[in-house]
Specification:
Layout lengths: L19 H12 L19 H5 L6 H14 L6
Length: about 80
């Protein structure tokens, strides 16, 4: 008995028409900087504190880290700058 070969079927690939102007606008959109998500923008610019000074030396759970981080942000008035 002869083995039958599987026949590959060719499918037509359609090319999408894009204009140069459309390409330029998408590149320009990518370069713009996005605003802070969620309504808060926190600036740590010119801060000298280390992580050890903010969180302490011991082990912390993620929830405790968040609490201490917000306490630091509110005490130094870093929110919405």
């Amino acid at each position: 008995m002869a083995k039958k070969r599987a026949v590959k079927r060719k499918t037509k690939k359609t090319k999408r028409k894009t204009t140069k102007a459309k390409r330029k606008t998408t590149k320009a959109k990518r370069k713009t900087k996005k605003k802070a998500f969620g309504g808060y923008s926190i600036s740590f610019k010119n801060r000298d504190e280390s992580l050890e000074q903010v969180f302490g030396k011991g082990n912390l759970a993620p929830s405790e880290m968040t609490k201490k981080l917000w306490k630091f942000i509110k005490s130094k008035r870093l929110a919405n700058k």
